[in-house]
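Propose amino acids for all 207 sites.
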């Protein structure tokens, strides 16, 4: 019994969980953030990129397939994630469409990406999925960025403003801005609500 109760209340597993900042497999977040950091700091567009070399802590076969033909496979492909980010910036749920998957510009960027494992990255972190990206530009520069704790990881939490932004992006198209904001506000005080039925009128669009 002492073993079961030891440390109870001192730490919580949920505090180590991710809050996904992007609508794709969580292992793809760090490489995408590294790429966006390079592009923003050096004022690059996808047309300036000759090659994107990506280092992961380890390469999972189903996440490292360059051939992407469906939305589901796009959400689980580091190739698509990097190609998408290079062309459109920060990935949102609206980017994962059949039209985007088939976009010839994105498909051409996929051909410029290489992926390899770097176990050393994994040794630098605790409870994270790190990544490092090196961009070789068309004018001969080589630019590198490393992200150990991407946004949403327990080591790099989303701010309240970022949480709200993500929630509104997904909900206001259905509920409208005012109702979505009210639902968010109520959800943030859920521990004070005795009966969740009190919120039921906020779950669907106002009639």
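Proposal:
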């Amino acid at each position: 019994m002492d073993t079961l109760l030891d440390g109870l209340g001192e730490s919580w597993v949920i505090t180590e969980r991710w809050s996904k900042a992007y609508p794709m497999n969580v292992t793809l977040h760090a490489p995408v953030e590294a790429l966006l950091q390079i592009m923003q700091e050096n004022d690059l567009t996808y047309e300036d990129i000759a090659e994107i070399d990506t280092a992961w802590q380890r390469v999972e076969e189903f996440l490292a397939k360059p051939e992407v033909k469906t939305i589901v496979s796009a959400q689980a492909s580091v190739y698509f994630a990097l190609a998408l980010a290079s062309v459109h910036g920060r990935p949102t749920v609206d980017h994962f469409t059949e039209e985007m998957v088939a976009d010839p510009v994105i498909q051409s960027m996929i051909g410029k990406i290489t992926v390899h494992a770097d176990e050393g990255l994994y040794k630098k972190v605790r409870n994270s999925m790190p990544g490092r990206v090196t961009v070789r530009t068309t004018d001969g520069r080589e630019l590198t960025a490393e992200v150990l704790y991407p946004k949403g990881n327990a080591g790099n939490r989303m701010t309240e403003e970022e949480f709200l932004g993500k929630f509104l992006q997904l909900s206001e198209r259905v509920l409208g801005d005012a109702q979505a904001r009210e639902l968010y506000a109520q959800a943030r005080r859920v521990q004070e609500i005795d009966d969740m039925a009190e919120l039921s009128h906020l779950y669907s669009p106002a009639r």
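DSSP finds nine helices and four strands in the chain. The radius of gyration is 20 Å.
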